[in-house]
Design brief:
The protein is mainly β. The chain is 10% helix and 54% strand. The strands form 2 sheets. Strands 1, 2, 3, 5, 6, 8, 9, 10, 11 and 12 form a 10-stranded antiparallel β-sheet that branches. The chain has a two-stranded antiparallel sheet with strand order 4-7. A hairpin with a 2-residue loop joins strand 8 and strand 9. The protein starts with a strand and ends with a strand. 6% of the residues are buried.
Length: 294
């Protein structure tokens, strides 16, 4: 008999090391004023808040606001296998997680896999079993698109950590267009998947063999999407809302088979008969609720 145990852990870090050279605020303002002058257009607060509403001495490198975060990935695997001529099997477990540079939250996954094989001394009876389970969890939120903001644009968050709608008042939805609300609108998803398979082969007599395959699959998922009031412009008198979804699928399959092989003279005769029995069930539900006061 032999056995083997393995452990593997990988950890990685993601970091932007170099950024584009960008105009500073003075250079940017000069370029903007010259563009309006060349076109013979008078700037207005709606189309030129950077010239008429915002502090022309303020500077923010929005590249670093988007890509300044450190991302990381983790993968860990433990596996065991062993056995002898008649019985052998294996078991492995995996865990992985990821936090991206341009997102908040984390993606996680856990999986377990089991295999087992058995054969009789005379090899007339053989059996194999496999089973696998995977669970995933995600609550990632994308960072807003800030590269279109002027270098003297106000902070996207106020001193209380809320969206700075007041600082972007009168800019025709500029702050909403950046996608900043994504940071305050969590989306969470969970999913589980189970797959099992059981197979047997038995030689009844010479040339006559019975085999059977039995399988079962189950999966379910659940998700939440929240839109709280704090993620929306208070000037619109918003209310909170939530969307909840749930789904499940299960399937059972049974495949018995009988085969016969024999030689007749110089030719070979093969006869196979079998059946497939399958049952599948699916369910899904989605609810939306509005009018919350938070």
């Amino acid at each position: 008999n032999t056995s083997d145990l393995s452990v593997n852990i990988d950890y990685g870090v993601q970091k932007v090391m170099r950024y584009f050279d960008m105009l500073n605020t003075q250079q940017y303002i000069e370029m903007r004023r010259e563009a309006y002058k060349n076109d013979g257009i008078t700037p207005t607060p709606i189309d030129a808040p950077d010239l008429l509403l915002w502090d022309t001495t303020r500077y923010t490198d929005w590249q670093r606001e988007i890509f300044g975060k450190t991302g990381n990935t983790l993968r860990a695997t433990v596996g065991y296998s062993g056995g002898g001529p008649q019985l052998k099997g294996g078991l492995s477990a995996n865990y992985s997680s990821m936090e991206g540079i341009t997102s908040q939250g984390k993606d996680e996954a856990i999986s377990i896999t089991m295999t087992a094989d058995f054969a009789s001394n005379n090899q007339k009876f053989r059996m194999s079993v496999t089973a696998g389970f995977v669970s995933t969890m995600s609550n990632m939120r994308s960072m807003p698109i800030l590269t279109s903001l002027a270098p003297n644009a106000p902070p996207i968050l106020d001193s209380a950590g809320e969206i700075n709608f007041r600082g972007y008042a009168g800019t025709n939805g500029l702050i909403e267009g950046s996608g900043i609300q994504n940071l305050f609108q969590p989306i969470e998803n969970k999913a589980n998947n189970l797959q099992t398979n059981f197979r047997i082969n038995y030689q009844l007599v010479k040339g006559l063999q019975f085999s059977s395959n039995l399988g079962y699959v189950m999966s379910n998922g659940e998700g939440w999407a929240l839109t709280p009031i704090r993620s929306q412009n208070p000037a619109m008198n918003p209310t909170g809302q939530t969307i909840h979804s749930r789904s499940s699928t299960s399937a059972f399959m049974f495949e018995p088979q009988l085969s016969y092989d024999t030689w007749i003279g110089k030719g070979k005769l093969s006869v196979i008969t079998g059946a497939t029995i399958k049952n599948q069930k699916r369910e899904s539900l989605s609810n939306m609720a509005i009018g919350f006061t938070n």
